[in-house]
Amino acid sequence: MVNKNSHVPIYIQIEEELKQRIYLGEYEVGSPIPSERDLSNSFEVSRMTVRQAITNLVSSGMLYREKGRGTYVSTPKLEQPLNGLTSFTEDMRARGLTPSSKIIKFEQILPPFDVAKDLLLEDGEEVYFMVRIRNADDQPMAIERTYIPVKTLPGLDVKKLNGSLYKIVEEEYQQKIGNAIQQMEASLVAKEDSKYLQMDVSAVVLIIKRISFLSDGQPFELVRSAYRADRYKFISEIQR
Ligand code: 16G
To answer: Does this complex have an ipTM over 0.85?
Structure first.
């Protein structure tokens, strides 16, 4: 399987072979791959070479290491299109996953200055502020911090926010959701969020800030979401 005369470094050939085995399901999601020792014996290469290949697959997220237990095949990342203004509930259902939320906080406050500016609020206009953990099949995927002008959704009932905010906006308040502006950046997970997302404190999240507008141009939410970078990848189609 390994061609020692090839110009392709051996650790890369091994990496490709392991990838293929994962792809073909020979190594199953959630199961351990063979030990470094077994792999180095079967490929007839040094353990160092095998380790290099495995380390690359751990860095790219295809494998994960469990201390003292071995190296396991990760669940493939969820592919989230970046075109289309969809809700978390819709996104998860479209994949056959069951969405659920845990509300950590819900309060009515005067917004911080920058939030008031983004939501085009006058002095003294209040917002609902909520923090929700978003789960898919009971696995935490993201934590969202949402600001909603009270005047846009007066009397918003916290009990309903276990479900879909967008459904409440459209069905209960009979408002049309129009468009949104999004920014994305990578960051180390905040210490508080690592607990909620069940991540290591040194893990990476993708932070998305979304400001969404009703079809009449009125902003109705500002959301900062931290997505688990090991569970998500974002896809967009671009044209020239
Ligand atoms: C998504 C949106 C968020 C929105 C939520 C509504 C991103 C980055 N964020 O998570 O802005 O508030 O959906 O979901 O996509 P819901 O209708 O299920 O409550």
So the answer is: yes
Q: Work out the pLDDT band at 96, boundaries 50, 70, 90.
A: very high
To test the ligand 1 pocket, which listed residue (90, 143, 144, 170) has its Cβ within 8 A of the most ligand atoms? 144
User: What is the 8-class DSSP label of residue 140?
Assistant: E
Is 89 a pocket residue for ligand 1 (Cβ < 6 Å)?
yes
Rounded CA Rg of the chain: 22
In order of 43, 53, 70, the CA distances from 35 in angstroms are: 12, 13, 7
Strand, coil or helix: what is 40?
A: helix
Cα→Cα distances 45→17, 52, 122, 149, Å: 14, 12, 68, 62
* Tokens representing residue 135 in the block: 């789960």
Burial 49-79 (b: 16+ CB within 10 A, else e): bbbbbbebbeeebbbeeeeeeebbbbeeebe
Q: List domains and CATH numbers for the chain.
A: 10-73 (1.10.10.10), 78-235 (3.40.1410.10)
Structure tokens of 170? 């459209």
153 close to 161: Cβ distance less than 8 angstroms:
no
**Strands, E, within the chain: which ranges?**
63-66, 70-73, 78-81, 99-109, 127-136, 139-149, 177-188, 204-214, 219-228, 232-235
Which numbered atom of ligand 1 lies nearest the CA of 227? 8
pTM: 0.86
Mean pLDDT of 186-190: 96
Kindly report the protein residue whose alpha carbon is nearest to atom 5 of ligand 1: 87
